[in-house]
Structure formats: structure tokens, C-alpha cells
């Protein structure tokens, strides 16, 4: 049996707390489903700055490059907020690893579990739900465009999209929509931005190759509103780096908490799995963070990197069963009694079958 080598980068804030617990769940699922994994830890973000001076040490990158998959917690926190941008955990750690590993498609699935209907801030008509996937372009756009400048009198970022970058992400999104409910919403700002006009043209042209997928285009401001007015109307959204960042946090709220939202970053040779949310400094160190986003990211690793949909579904079902039994961390408990990070993971492990 192959042993999968997994690079584990806990990072900062709640990262190490939710990572520890998620690894216990993945170990337990691996045992049940005969998936052998070797977890190898490395530093990233503020933790790496403190230990080595660099937010992304070479040793970490080399480990990731040689691994079968990468699990990441989260990076950043007030301690490192005043460093120059490129030395900060976010740019020098997270964006740098995305670039180095050529991670181009960030999949952020949002599901409102029936047990959490009362935690959704939006009224959901009975009989419907929220089950959508944001496909966020991760390698380009305003995050990486050059020139990028900053001095005392001006700040400049460049939003650049090349047609082939858009085709690559559009293909991922059309294929996901074809496997799901067959609807794709492409989100842009083509009434203003050149990069978005190109985006819309490329996506529209590709639509002809996927006749089974119903394609529609939406401006990002309207999309932000429609997500609240009619979240059940969305199946797959495809969008650029910045809009995807913002809309995915918005859609996480529909699932009850950012702590419920996992992600998979698909790369040219290795994939990275991480919660969509951050290091949550407001609750870090208290043992109360919701580990579900990190656990679900591990389930995505089973599915996307190990081709083990059975184990992925089993982990998701165990989470659902725990929530159905009323086990919840504070962020999704609505003021009712709640459990800590460790007990939440225990509850999931207990229900794995
Ligand atoms: N992928 C990443 O590593 C990543 C993502 C976003 C933000 N960040 C960084 O994290 C730091 C904090 O940023 P922020 O406060 O804007 O965003 P955040 O995502 O860390 O937190 C936003 C809110 O969501 C809550 N939250 C997030 N994850 C949770 C969980 N698992 N359980 C319960 N509650 C959870 C937090 O408590 C907070 O109230 C910053 O340094 C930021 O740059 C990192
Ligand atoms: C921390 C930050 C660089 C990152 C992003 O903007 O991509 C985060 O918000 C995310 O959503 O993964
Ligand atoms: Mg974000």
C-alpha cells in the first residue's frame, strides 16, 4: 500500500489548534479506509518568521514540492502586521507558496448543513438549501499583477488577466458544474474593467464546448447581493482572485461560520488544502475554534489528491452526524451550549463509519 507523504504547515493563530485536531480525524479515517499517510510538519507565516526570519523557508518549500499533498492551517496576526508587505506572513508566506507551487484553482465549497439552518443569517425557503462551489482563480489578477508599487505618496496594484489563465480556470469551473447541478455563474466587473471584459469573452466562448451547462454572467456587485437574496439559486461560481476572496467569505456566512468553509488549491503538480478563513486572532489560544473547515479540507485532500471519494464522504457524513446530534463549537451554537475544538473533533471521530 502506498504511503502518502503529507506536508503539514499549521501556521499561526488558530492554525495549529485546528490542524492538530484535524490530523486526528484524518488518521482515524485513514485507518478505517486503508489510507496510509505520513505527516511531516514545517513552518510558514509568522511562526516561520519568528523561528527563521523568513515567512516561507526553503526547507518548507522543498518539503511541499516533494510531498503528495500539502495541508495548511492559516497565517498572519497582529504581531507581524507592521512588517513591510513582502515580508509579512500573507504576502511572503501564503501568496508566495501559492505562486511557488503554481496553485491556480481554489475550490471553496459551501454547504449549509440542515442542522445549522438556524445559524444561517438569511431566511432559506423550506425545502431548499445552500450548496454552492466558488471556483476562485488563484494565480493571477490584482494579487500578482505587475507593476506593484508602494511609497509614502502612492500605492499601485495591477489587475492583469491573460486569456490562457482565464481558460484554465473556466475549464475547471465548467467541469465542476457539469458534475454538479449544471449551472455556472461567471462573476466579473465587465462594465468597468478591461481584465473583466477579457474574462467574460473567454468564459462565454468556452460555454459552447459545454452545452449541458447553463452559463450566466453577473457583475460582482449584483452577485454579492444575489448571494444573500437567493443563495439557493447558485451552483458553481467562477471568478477572479480578488472577487473570489470576498465572495467566498460572504458565502461562508451562509453556512453559519467561516469555520465551516474548507478549500482546495489545485496546482500544476501538488495540491494544497486549507480553510478559507484566517488565523482568527480574536479566539486563538482558547481551544474554541471550529475545526470543521480544517477537517473538511482534509476530506478534500482524500478526494482530490488521493482519489478516495469514499473516505471523503465518510468524513463529511461524520461531521453531519455530529452536528445533527447537537455537537457544535461556539461560532455555530447561537448562544446555546458549545464544545471546544478537541471535543468537536472527538465527536467526528466517534461517528466515523
Ligand atoms: N488563509 C489564511 O491563512 C488567511 C485567510 C484570511 C485571513 N488571514 C489572516 O488572518 C488574520 C485575521 O484576519 P481576519 O480577522 O480578517 O479573518 P479571520 O478569517 O481570521 O477571522 C474572521 C472572523 O471569523 C472567525 N473565524 C474564522 N475561522 C474560525 C474558526 N475556525 N472557528 C470559529 N471562528 C472562526 C474569527 O474568529 C473572526 O471573528 C490576518 O492576519 C489575516 O491576514 C489568513
Ligand atoms: C490572507 C490572504 C492573503 C488570503 C487571500 O486573500 O487569498 C485569504 O484571505 C484567503 O482567502 O485565503
Ligand atoms: Mg480570504
Structure, explained:
With 353 residues, this protein is of the alpha/beta class. The protein folds into 2 domains: 1-108 and 261-353, 3-Layer(aba) Sandwich (Isopropylmalate Dehydrogenase), CATH 3.40.718.10; 121-254, Isopropylmalate Dehydrogenase. It has 11 helices and 12 strands. The strands form 2 sheets. A 10-stranded mixed sheet has the order 2-1-3-12-11-4-5-10-8-9, sandwiched between helices. The longest helix has 18 residues, at 15-32. The structure holds nicotinamide-adenine-dinucleotide (NAD), 3-isopropylmalic acid and magnesium ion (MG). Magnesium ion binds at residues 245, 249.
Features:
two-stranded antiparallel sheet, 10-stranded mixed beta sheet, 2 domains, Isopropylmalate Dehydrogenase, binds magnesium ion, globular, binds 3-isopropylmalic acid, 353 residues, binds nicotinamide-adenine-dinucleotide, alpha/beta
Amino acid at each position: 500500500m502506498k504511503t502518502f507523504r503529507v506536508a503539514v504547515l499549521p501556521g499561526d493563530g488558530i492554525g495549529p489548534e485546528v490542524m492538530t485536531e484535524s490530523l486526528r480525524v484524518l488518521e482515524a479515517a485513514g485507518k478505517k479506509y486503508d489510507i496510509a499517510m505520513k505527516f511531516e510538519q514545517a513552518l510558514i507565516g509568522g511562526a516561520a518568521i519568528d523561528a527563521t526570519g523568513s515567512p516561507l523557508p526553503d526547507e518548507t518549500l522543498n518539503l511541499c514540492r516533494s510531498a503528495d499533498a500539502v495541508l495548511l492551517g492559516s497565517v498572519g496576526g497582529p504581531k507581524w502586521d507592521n512588517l513591510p508587505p513582502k515580508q509579512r506572513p500573507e504576502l511572503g508566506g501564503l501568496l508566495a507558496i501559492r505562486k511557488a507551487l503554481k496553485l491556480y484553482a481554489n475550490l471553496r465549497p459551501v454547504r449549509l448543513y440542515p442542522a445549522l439552518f438556524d445559524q444561517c443569517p438569511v431566511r432559506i425557503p423550506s425545502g431548499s438549501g445552500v450548496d454552492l462551489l466558488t471556483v476562485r482563480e488563484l494565480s493571477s489578477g490584482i494579487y500578482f499583477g505587475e507593476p506593484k508599487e508602494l511609497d509614502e505618496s502612492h500605492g499601485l496594484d495591477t489587475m492583469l488577466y491573460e486569456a490562457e489563465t482565464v481558460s484554465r480556470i473556466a475549464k475547471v469551473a465548467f467541469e465542476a458544474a457539469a458534475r454538479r447541478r449544471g449551472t455556472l455563474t461567471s462573476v466579473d466587473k465587465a462594465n468597468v474593467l478591461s481584465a473583466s471584459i477579457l474574462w467574460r469573452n473567454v468564459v462565454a466562448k468556452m460555454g459552447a464546448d459545454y452545452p449541458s451547462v447553463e452559463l450566466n454572467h453577473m457583475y460582482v456587485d449584483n452577485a454579492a447581493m444575489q448571494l444573500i437574496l437567493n443563495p439557493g439559486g447558485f451552483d458553481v461560481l467562477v471568478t477572479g482572485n480578488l472577487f473570489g476572496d470576498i465572495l467566498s467569505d460572504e458565502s461562508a456566512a451562509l453556512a453559519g461560520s467561516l469555520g465551516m468553509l474548507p478549500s482546495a488549491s489545485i496546482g500544476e503538480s501538488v495540491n494544497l488544502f486549507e480553510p478559507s478563513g484566517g488565523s482568527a486572532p480574536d479566539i486563538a489560544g482558547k481551544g474554541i475554534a471550529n475545526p470543521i473547515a480544517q477537517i473538511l479540507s482534509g476530506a478534500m485532500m482524500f478526494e482530490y489528491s488521493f482519489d478516495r471519494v469514499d473516505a471523503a464522504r465518510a468524513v463529511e457524513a461524520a461531521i453531519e452526524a455530529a452536528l445533527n446530534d447537537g455537537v457544535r463549537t461556539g461560532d455555530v451554537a447561537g448562544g446555546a451550549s458549545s464544545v471546544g475544538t478537541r471535543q468537536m473533533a472527538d465527536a467526528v471521530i466517534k461517528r466515523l463509519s
